[in-house]
Amino acid sequence: MSITATLLLISTVFLLQPPPLTSTSATTAYELLAQYNFPEGILPKGITGYELDESSGKFRAYLNGTCSFSLEGSYQLSYKPIISGHISKNRLKDLTGVSVKVLFLWLDIVEVVRDTGDLDFSVGIASASFPLDNFFVSPQCGCGLDCGEEFENPSLPLSSM
């Protein structure tokens, strides 16, 4: 392949790349949630960064690794290292990277809608509503909201933005 053809191919690849996501005035992913009327507790502690395309609402939030925990003894949640979707006032849609265990199946949470004092979580075929005040505190990977002393002062602290 000639140098001209190689340069043309490289420039074409760069032109086809999607525009990079940009940050808002929020300095943390948790502050970003607040700007869109969501409580910080829908994300676990340890989010290391985020990106947002303000024109489309497309976002990405980053964890150092996978994260899972139980809430209220009956709900098991799992987060992948990258959580993405589209955010707008009172609505997260096209979510990827968040799953809930229902009976023996892991189902992806695809949408979260804030409806007055509740958050409605949808897995596509079904949804469930929970009081907003259940999400004022972010759960911690491994122990959720029921963390004992060993999780309050971990030897390797999780970084929060």
Automatic annotation (TrEMBL):
Superkingdom of origin: Eukaryota
Q: Any idea what this protein is called?
A: DUF538 domain-containing protein
Q: Which organism is it from?
A: Lupinus luteus
InterPro entries the UniProt entry points to: At5g01610-like, DUF538
Is Signal one of the keywords UniProt gives this record? yes
Keyword Amino-acid biosynthesis attached: no
Q: Give the residue range of the signal peptide.
A: 1-23
Q: Gene3D superfamilies per the record? A: At5g01610-like (2.30.240.10)
Taxonomic lineage: Eukaryota, Viridiplantae, Streptophyta, Embryophyta, Tracheophyta
- Which keywords appear in this protein's UniProt record, sorted alphabetically? Signal
